[in-house]
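queue> holo job accepted (adenosine monophosphate)
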Amino acid sequence: MNIVLLGAPGAGKGTQAKKLVENHSYLHLSTGDLLRAAVRNQTPLGLKAKAFMDAGDLVPDDLIINMVKERIQEDDAKNGVIFDGFPRTATQAVALDSELAELGQPLDFAILVDVNKEVIIGRLTSRRTCRECGYIGSDADASCPKCSGEMYQRDDDNEATVRNRLDVYERSTAPLIDYYRGKELLVTIDGDRPVDDVYADLVKALGL
Ligand code: AMP
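queue> job finished
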């Protein structure tokens, strides 16, 4: 099963994707995570992407599409992929459709994790992530509740960058909601609830 998770930054897409792959054998493909790893490892892609990410702008489509194409050809993508943070533009959405058609594994669902924009700024600026296991928590977590690793704040989770990321979302990514509605793949879930409640709806929507 191939699933796109749509929703504003901070909607909880990453948290839900992580829960899903804990219980099912899908690949969690987060373009943000892949890019952060590329930046950390100072690969040619990472060097090109860093300035866009620091500003909260989108990394150019061709770089993202190539990165995703390569990743979904690997063996661990065969059981299905949860796309988290991708596609973010119409060009990316069309490229994903044609790539999945070529692989003979079309998209099954586009899940919109719908959240109130007012709460997102607070959520993102207080977000902290575990350096060891990637757990997503908040500034209330002195250390990771899962593995005791160190919690850090992402470079782009400061208020100015968060505001730009939300503008970019409205401009470039929110139109994909209609794109997937038109393809009858869209399911909307209320993301303004506790993680486990959102997850219960997600599992139900996917028929798992
Ligand atoms: P995320 O972890 O999904 O919030 O992504 C962090 C940053 O990585 C974004 O603000 C963008 O700069 C970049 N990024 C991640 N995914 C994409 C994408 N699909 N298209 C363009 N840029 C992306």
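queue> Residues 9, 31-32, 35, 52-53, 56-59, 64, 85-86, 88, 92, 156, 165 surround adenosine monophosphate (CB under 6 Å).
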